[in-house]
Amino acid sequence: MTLAYVALGSNLEQPAEQVRAALAALGHLAGTSLLRHSSLYRTAPVGYADQPDFINAVALLDTRLPPLDLLDQLFAIEQRFGRERSFRNAPRVLDLDLLYYDDVIMGGPQLTLPHPRMRERAFVMVPLAEIAPGMLPGVGDVAALAVGLDCAGVERLDDGGEPQEKQE
After folding, report:
1. What digits encode the pLDDT tens for the residues 83-105?
2. Could you give the maximum distance between any two Cα atoms of the chain, in Å?
3. With contact defined as beta carbons under 8 Å apart, do 65 and 30 qualify?
4. By residue range, what is the domain housing residue 85?
5. Percent of the chain, pLDDT > 70?
6. C or N: which end of the chain has fewer Cβ atoms within 10 Å?
7. What beta strand segments (E) does the chain contain?
8. Which SUPFAM superfamilies does the UniProt record give (predicted)?
9. Which pairing describes strands 41-43 and 32-37: parallel, antiparallel, or unpaired?
10. Distance between CA 108 and CA 116 in Å, rounded?
11. Could you tell me if residue 131 is inside a domain?
């Protein structure tokens, strides 16, 4: 079993539906099973702020695809969904990032694993902590890292896409 975590995000063209459809597409990749995924989260944009909020989630896959082949398949899904790369942090129909692949630590022009900025991003770490709160080699204690981030602007949604009521 080779476990991989993928971050999903969208802020255009019914983003919650885009993320749900992308989760289904991940489960249909050759040699890959979708084991589970986080809730959907509404998050404020990072970098370029003049755009709609994002819907984000994280998926756990079991895959037989090597890391670069999986990355190519993620790019192919983005393209099928109409992803355009106009500028850094631009609004997008779908963004898929390979966060973590088993215990692989690698750096290269196409792919760095674990994802080099994941530990700084609440919109990644909060959903990741929901499905993988423990230690990930090369990353650390996911739940502790998530708690240490500024989570203002990260809001968990219910199954209908509405904000969940806060538990007292």
Report:
1. 877 767 668 899 999 999 999 99
2. 46
3. yes
4. 2-156
5. 93
6. C
7. 3-10, 32-37, 41-43, 54-63, 95-101, 135-136, 140-141, 154-156
8. 6-hydroxymethyl-7,8-dihydropterin pyrophosphokinase, HPPK
9. unpaired
10. 11
11. yes
